Every structure is written in structure tokens, then in C-alpha cells.
Amino acid sequence: MSLLDWFDNLRKSEPEIKPQQEREIADGLWTKCPECGVLAYTKDLQANNMVCFDCGYHMRIFSDERIEQLIDAKTWQPLNHHLKPTDPLNFHDRKSYSDRLKELQNKVPLTDAVQTGTGLIDGLPIALGVMDFRFMGGSMGSVVGERLTRLIEYATANAFPVVIVCASGGARMQEGMLSLMQMAKISGALQRHKEKKLLYIPVLTHPTTGGVTASFAMLGDLILAEPGATIGFAGRRVIEQTLREKLPDDFQTSEYLVKHGFVDSIVPRTQLKKTLANLISLHQPFFSIEGHN
């Protein structure tokens, strides 16, 4: 036997050494904060309403989670969820608007960019609208406007306070003028709500911009915002080019707007339910009197 054959037989007789497998981490078990990079156990983070334990960054959440955080268990009653958008202008860009709607409705468990309904918040009745950025950037089309208008009208008829959690890029361009008309329609419903001396509180979350900011987001009796939220009408670059000057670094943040009187208070998400309940309870005796008139 040659020396090479001997070494070959020796190699074949040695037990195969398998590479050590890395311990697998179940998908979604940990969540990394996009602001500070700290890893947190997802269940603990969810229990903290998706607010980073280390830096306080408010991670984006969607309408289902928001409703679960704000509304008492088993009290949520959806309103007008049967309303679905159409394509009245037969709009096309890279693809047709109707195809975009079908694609999104198959991708996310929503038919449009807002959920509306009633429920209890610490035992107090409330009419709640929650916008959802997953659906075309939370843009306001005809169905969003109609759902919010009907919600407000229902609240007015039943002497309920209204809370709308805003998260939107503004009016939906695929519906053109029909989208812009929703600003006046919702604002008119809010005016009738106000004439009954009923409470309306918008909660501005990241981001709240465009036609939503220019209408119902800024019409509240009390305007609340989450920390670090982007709130504005036109984009920062457009404003800088128009004014031809550099804007402050914190421009169009909730902190900047509180400082300049556009927002009444910044409320961390972990305190939002209790804050809303306290504000509503302060007005609740008046609601009860109005409801019987």
C-alpha cells in the first residue's frame, strides 16, 4: 500500500465533523428599535405598546393594535366597515387605481385606510376612528371621508365624544377633487358636533400631513400628539425652497408644534388611554345632560 493510499484510508475512517449549528431564533421573537438599535423581547415590547424601553421611541403600529390598546376588551363595535372604495375617475399611473385597491385589499386585512366604530374606554363610551398607514399611506379618499363623517354623525346623535387617531400622507391623488371634497364634508360634520357642545379630540401620530392636517386633524377641542411625530402640510423641502431659508431641525415635529401652540399636549402612547379617559370623564357630565335634551 502506498503512502497516499494509507492517508486516504485514514481520512475515510475518521468520524465526520459537522459544523456547529447556530442556535435559531424564532422569527419575530425579538424586535430591534430603529432609533437606538436595542433589541427587546417582542412580547415585552407589545406589553409596552411598542414603545422602546431604552430610548422611548414610538414604533409604528396599525389600526388593529391601536384599537386593542385604547378600547376596553370585547366592547369594540365596528361601523360602516362594509363601505369599499371604487375607481370613479378610472385613474391610471403605472397601474390602474382599481388594481392597486385589489392588491392592497389582498395584502392587508383592510378595505380602506380607516377603521371606525364605538366602544368603551375605561368604561366610558366613545366613537373612535383610527387611520392606517398600511393602506396607501393612510390617504384620505371618498370612503375614508364617508366613514369618518358617518362616525361623527353617529356620535352627535348619541352624544358620544369623538376621537380620531390620525396617520396619513394626505388626500388621495387617485380620486382627485373627490378626495379634496372630504375635507369639507368631515369638517362640516365636526361643526355640527361642536354645536351640540360635544367633545372632539384628534390624536396626531407619525406621520400626519397634507389634507388631513389641513382639515379634521387640526379642528379638535383638544389636540394631542405622540412624541416625535411628523406633523405638517407641505413637505419640508417644498417649504424651504419657497421661503429660501433653512428650517429648524425639529420643524414639523410634535415637539415643535407644542412649542408654537398648534398642539395642546404630547402624550406618550403608554399614557394615551388613561389621558383620553380622564379628558372624557371631565366632560362626561355635560355629555349626559346634552344627551337628554
Mind explaining what this structure looks like?
The protein is α/β, with parallel strands linked by helices. The protein folds into two domains: 28-59, no CATH class; 61-291, 2-enoyl-CoA Hydratase, Chain A, domain 1, CATH 3.90.226.10. The chain is 39% helix and 15% strand. The strands form two sheets. It has a seven-stranded mixed beta sheet with strand order 3-4-5-6-7-8-9, sandwiched between helices. Strand 7 (200-208), helix 7 and strand 8 form a beta-alpha-beta unit. The relative contact order is 0.11. The model is unreliable at 17-25 and 287-293 (pLDDT under 50).
Secondary structure: elements and pairs:
Blueprint: H1 3-13, E1 30-32, E2 39-41, H2 42-47, H3 63-70, E3 77-78, H4 97-107, E4 114-121, E5 124-131, H5 142-158, E6 162-168, H6 176-195, E7 200-208, H7 210-213, E8 224-225, H8 236-243, H9 254-259, E9 265-266, H10 269-291
Parallel strand pairs: 5-6, 6-7, 7-8, 8-9
Antiparallel strand pairs: 1-2, 3-4, 4-5
Helix pairs in contact: 5-6
CATH first level of the largest domain: which class?
Alpha Beta
Uncertain runs: 17-25, 287-293
Q: What's the overall geometry?
A: globular
CATH topology of the largest domain: 2-enoyl-CoA Hydratase, Chain A, domain 1
Order of helices and strands: HEEHHEHEEHEHEHEHHEH
As a percent range, the share of helical residues equals 25-40%
CATH architecture type of the largest domain:
Alpha-Beta Complex
Trace the largest sheet across and list its strands.
3-4-5-6-7-8-9
Give me the number of helical elements.
10
